[in-house]
Amino acid sequence: MPGCPRLLKEYKELSTAKPDPEIELKLTDEADIYQWTAKLQGPAGSPYEGGRFELKIVCLPTYPLAPPKVTFTTPVFHPNVLYKTGEICLDILKPEAWTPAWTLQSVCRAVAALLSHPEADSPLNCDCGNLIRSGDMRGYRSMARMYTAMHAGGNGS
Amino acid sequence: MTSVPVPARSATSESQLSMSHYTSDDYMDDGGDAFGGDDIDTVAAAEPEAVVLSGLDVAREQEQQISNIASLFECSKLDASIMLRRFAWRTERLIERFFEDPAAVRSEAGLREPESPSKRHRRADEQSSSDGAGAAEDWACSVCFCPAPRDARSALRCGHVFCNDCWGNHLRVQVNEGNADKVHCMAEGCSVLVEPHLAQVLLDAEAYAKFARFAQKQFVDDNPYMKWCPAVGCEKVIKVSDIGSCSETACTCGMIFCFACSREAHFPLSCATLTRWEDKEASDSSTGQWFQAHAKRCRKCHSFIEKNGGCNWMRCRCGHEFCYFCFSTDHSHHNQPCNAPPPPEASSAQTDLEYYMHYFDRWTGHRKSQELEEQLRCDAEKKMEEMTGRFGMRVEVEYLRDAVETLILCRRLLKNTYPFAFYMPRTNQKFIFQEMQGRLESSTEKLAGLLEAEGEPNRQAVINTRADAKKQLDNMRELLESKGEPDTWTDSCVQAVTLSVSQSVSSRSPRAHHGQAQADEASAISSHI
Questions:
Q1: Which chain A residues are closer than 8 Å to B186 by Cβ?
Q2: Any residues with CB less than 8 A from the CB of B198 and at least 6 apart, and which?
């Protein structure tokens, strides 16, 4: 399986490329190429702005042919994230929609994009989804800002 | 389905011994035991409804569909197979769409204008050299990020080049996921399907065999006219010519099953009513409780689906999509809240339970009998051997086999009438139904008693009882076939059924002593009204 060489390449590219201010992608443990940790900057203009969110990324030996498992380790109030476990509902992380052309970097970008574009119609966090579906965007934003301030170091403003 | 499918056995039916056709009306003729496996006979039956296919036949069938489309669309077989796979082997829909707008169909299937393979390779090479900043040596596969020599790269017709190692791994991963017929190109957003010959080149023999097996499985699963025989260990495929008309289907292995839901034949119950009943039964067991708490049944293929995360829009492996809460299949419902309360159910727990237990006990009882009586088949066969030795004429003892087969049919119908009656409202209709059910039950029991007795059976008694049981079976079937789902049996249509029952009895009882029974029945019915 190509997992190891491919991940080594990604690792090499990440360490030589110019660091991305919004996404910090690192090996969790320098001895294990399959476990990664990412820190996302809350996207500007979203209620998550100002927060730093940690993601746990686990690659299977079949990566990149099978998608990596990505979860939030920082609690997030978002319709497509299960608050308790950090599970993310995102189509590209499902085997049907995943393609091997995605990289860990692009996966992180997709998760950041999900933060600014909540999809309330397929909610994992039903309370959050209901707020948005009922049109209470103000309620949703203030809740999300509060949780960001509580857990992700946002300033809550 | 019409009346009970027990055809007369006679010397003239000899030609049926080697045929593989089973219409729903002649599945009692189990001459298919002599059937060798690969030949499809299309001559014997007047109007074939169901054909039993082996693995080779299925491959031939697939090839045939591809050739038909290729000659109809005047395209290559490869293009035809790709379009067919894109349309999940629904030939009619493909043809319809193709003649509306061939270009749209071609592009939907990921086909470009027809081009020769050599040109395709050239294009792939051009792309790879433009990808790799000019020099071909700099090319790196965008999946493994490794360089690969020119002859170790491949592309589908979309021109996305990857190294052969990655293609092979991609195919292996997809096959392990159970997908072989619809493996996509690895490029992001590209929906071009992998052609089977690429798999043949890139996979080793073992992996390719698996790939081919899954591809064939998907072909059968996708094909609305084909079903796998649900019997354990049977690998035959049943093909029907018309989906609606052939709900009870027989395989050469002896299995008789419902074509729509792949469970044992369950007339008079509809698939949905049987599922309702099974779920009700299961709710008492702990496995059933687990299923109730954690899983729901697909309304199309009736398999259990466990929701393992994500939203409530479910997609079953059979392709059916629905809302996990309300089973709506409306895609626009996907975006709507699903919180309408169900209609309130008036009930008193105690009487409900007694009512249910009444039907449940009988249903399980008959199910158990059915299992035991299926074993009678072997016993009867042994007895027949023995008796043939003494009488010298096989024909003389065949009545025994006919009797066992009739018994099994009666028992199965009887078993299924109990859940059916459970869902029937308490009306005069139900009273009539129960009368007939009672008669079927007593003649079934009588026949069972005779056949289970030790020693040599009483030939005349067996023949008479079988005739009687068969008559009850026919009557019951006729009554049930004239009506729909159990909950629609209301008194408003009682008159019509009374008429049809008495007519059917009179037309079906040529013998004098049945005339009395008919009169009794008619009076019972009219007095009840």
A1: 99-101
A2: B154, B156, B167, B171
User: pLDDT tens digit string along B17-47?
Assistant: 333 333 333 333 333 333 333 444 333 333 4
Helix, strand, or coil (residue B323): strand
Angstrom distance (rounded) from CA A119 to CA A132: 9
Domains of chain A from N-terminus onward: 3-151 (3.10.110.10)
- As to burial, measured by CB atoms within 10 angstroms (0-12 exposed, 13-18 middle, 19+ buried), residue B32 is buried
What's the whole-number mean pLDDT along residues B99-123? 68
The ipTM estimated for the assembled molecules is 0.75
- Picking from B144, B312, B335, the nearest residue to A5 by CB comes out as B144
Asked if pLDDT for residue B230 goes beyond 80, the answer is: yes
Q: Which residues of B touch A (CB under 8 A)?
A: 142-146, 165-166, 169-170, 173, 177, 184, 186-190, 309-313, 334-335, 337
Which phi-psi region, left, alpha or beta, contains residue B37 (left: φ > 0; alpha: ψ -120 to 50)? left
Q: Which of A101, A122, A130 sits opposite B142 (nearest CB)?
A: A101
The contacts of residue A87 (CB under 8 Å, 6+ apart) are A71, A81, A124, B309
Which residues of chain A neighbour B143 with C-beta distances below 8 Å? 2, 6, 64-65, 100-101
Residue B502 contacts residue B523 (beta carbons within 8 Å) = no
Rounded to the nearest angstrom, the minimum Cα separation between B101 and chain A is: 28
Verify whether the Cβ–Cβ distance B188 to A10 is below 8 Å: no
- Show me where the domains of chain B are located: 116-203, 271-335, 377-528
- Do residues B25 and B5 touch, judged by C-beta distance below 8 A? yes
Contact B460, B396 (CB under 8 A): no
Which residues in B lie closer than 8 A to residue A130 (C-beta atoms)?
A: 337
Cα–Cα distance for residue pair A46/A49, rounded to 1 Å: 6
B341 is written with which tokens?
């309360």
A63-118: per-residue pLDDT in tens? 888 899 999 999 999 999 999 999 998 988 988 788 888 899 999 999 999 999 99
State the pLDDT at residue B7. 34
Residues A80, B457: Cα–Cα separation, whole Å: 71
Mean pLDDT over the full length of chain B: 73
What CATH number matches the domain at B116-203, 2.60.40.1120, 3.40.50.300, 3.20.20.80, 3.30.40.10? 3.30.40.10
pLDDT category at B312 given cuts 50, 70, 90 is: low
> Of A59, A89, A108, A126, which is the active-site residue?
A89
A147: CB partners within 8 A, 6+ apart: A75, A76, A77
Greatest CA separation for chain B: 98
Cis peptide before A64 (omega within 30 of 0): yes
A4 is an active site residue: no
